[in-house]
Write a structure and sequence with these properties.
heterodimer, A: 7-stranded mixed beta sheet, B: 6 helices, elongated
Chain lengths: 322, 174
């Protein structure tokens, strides 16, 4: 990993926490910052951190405990102060993001929000009386897609439609981000190409105030907070991409948009939640898509040797690479 | 001895007269300052409701367009929020009001209305912000009207009253 987790968390995350929680986290031993994936604040519940696959809590002195009952209890004021910090004391300026359930903070980290949902018709208008915050620490792992990029962008050929199959928290977003960067930058054997990232949940590029916080490459355009299906069609019409990258497909309109893109000569690289190819085949819409041979590459990820473990690569056509 | 008495008379008259004039001036300034605060809240409301500008920037932009004491109030708020010391807008607003209290001619009632802003400013959606500003504007309009009436009624009284009280004291002492 070419990043210093401790620096990232101290610089990007801690300034947004309440004084008390910030002090607790600063007292924590530095070794625990490594591999930290989430910090969770739930009103009246112990402060929780997820390091690797384990949940821990921290007591007032910053000691890391496995027994959650020993942890510092998060107060309503901690939540209020944290949300005030995250929103720059300007909830009204983040209404759209709050309506989607999360706010992206500088560095591309996402803060998930829990509280009382306010509906306007069938749509979620906003959330009020916040009761929980989940800080998900975004990491950029450059070259993590190195071993699969040859399958996606074979020597002297165009990029190939690829579906990344992964259970949650197996690193698919990090891999897709690196794929976007690599294709945009070009590889040793292939030139860089125009990439459009349709980032419905601001996870791939971690866009904050219109700027991608993650390196997605020099030839990449980002359609931030844009519904996937609409974004893919918009991109084809206006941004002339060679490759479209998007995350977590599943709805009917996503599938239709992918078929549109594939038939328009644009390569689509996307991901889906599943643990295996068989699981994808069992899902009605995705099963049909798979059967239509829209994707030439299927890449299965797991956490067996840590996030981003390439479990299986299936090439469904004769193309291969060096 | 005559010149000492004359000097005393002049000093007493000047002292009470000045006090009266200052009081009269303060009444007029209060009207002007409430009007400025009202205008300032209008600018802030537009930044929030139409442009969705985050508060630190909204305060600093609005401060450019308004006069004292609203300018100092907004500049203080903007600066404190930009420092990102984990302080909430409610605390920042309260502290900034305390800072401008000595510099303005607003009275306790005016400050109580301004204190109401701290309860919700920034920390709710656009609709709620709209309602907050509408309420504050209404109350400030009432305060401005009342201040104007007080200024009209009290201006002459204070301006001349100082000299009259001074003269009365001089007469009593002589």
């Amino acid at each position: 990993m070419d990043v210093n987790d401790q620096d990232i968390i101290k610089k990007d995350i801690l300034p947004f926490l309440s004084h008390d929680i910030k002090a607790i986290m600063l007292n924590m031993k530095n070794e625990y910052f490594r591999g930290m994936e989430e910090i969770r604040l739930r009103c009246g519940q112990p402060l929780a951190v997820r390091i690797g696959d384990q949940d821990y809590t921290l007591d007032r002195g910053g000691r890391v405990e496995k027994n959650l009952s020993l942890g510092y209890r998060v107060s309503a004021e901690d939540i209020y102060r944290s949300i005030a910090s995250i929103s720059d004391n300007s909830i009204y300026a983040f209404e759209e993001e709050i309506g989607r359930g999360f706010i992206t903070i500088p560095g591309g980290h996402r803060v998930g929000l829990a509280g009382q949902i306010v509906l306007k018709g069938p749509e979620v208008r906003t959330i009020k009386d916040f009761s929980g915050l989940a800080f998900r620490i975004a990491r950029e792992v450059k070259d993590c897609a190195h071993s699969i990029i040859g399958y996606i962008y074979p020597r002297e050929l165009e990029p190939i439609n690829t579906l990344v199959i992964s259970a949650p928290r197996c690193g698919k977003t990090t891999i897709l981000r690196d794929v976007a960067r690599s294709l945009s930058l070009g590889t040793r054997w292939a030139r860089g190409c125009n990439v459009v990232v349709v980032d419905e949940r601001s996870e791939l590029a971690g866009t904050y105030q219109g700027r991608a916080q993650m390196d997605v490459g020099p030839r990449t355009d980002v359609l931030d907070s844009c519904p996937k299906a609409r974004g893919m069609i918009m991109a084809i019409r206006s941004l002339s991409p060679h490759v479209l990258i998007t995350d977590e497909i599943g709805r009917r309109e996503d599938i239709e948009a992918i078929e549109e893109c594939v038939n328009a000569g644009v390569a689509v690289i996307t991901s889906v939640h599943a643990r295996s190819i068989e699981e994808v085949q069992k899902r009605p819409l995705l099963g049909e898509l798979l059967a239509s041979d829209a994707f030439a590459n299927l890449i299965v990820l797991s956490r067996r040797c840590g996030p981003g473990t390439i479990e299986q690569v299936v090439r469904r056509d004769a193309l291969c690479c060096g | 001895m005559l010149w000492v008495k004359t000097l005393g008379v002049v000093l007493v008259m000047a002292g009470f007269g000045s006090y009266g004039l200052l009081g009269a001036n303060s009444l007029e300034k209060r009207v002007e300052q409430i009007r400025n605060v009202r205008l300032a809240m209008g600018f802030l409301e537009k930044e929030i409701n139409y442009l969705h500008t985050p508060l630190p920037l909204a305060f600093s932009r609005s401060a450019q367009c308004v006069q004292e004491p609203a300018r100092s109030l907004f500049e203080n708020c903007s600066q404190s929020l930009q420092d990102r010391q984990g302080i909430t807008i409610s605390e920042v607003w309260g502290q900034s009001l305390v800072k401008i209290r000595g510099l303005s001619d607003l009275n306790n009632e005016d400050f109580e209305i301004l204190q109401l802003v701290s309860s919700q400013i920034g920390m709710s959606g656009t609709e709620e912000q709209n309602r907050l500003f509408a309420m504050i504007q209404e109350q400030l309009i009432i305060q401005e009207g009342q201040a104007r009436r007080e200024a009209e009624a009290g201006h002459k009284l204070r301006a001349y009253g100082g000299f009259i009280v001074g003269a009365a004291i001089v007469l009593l002492l002589i």
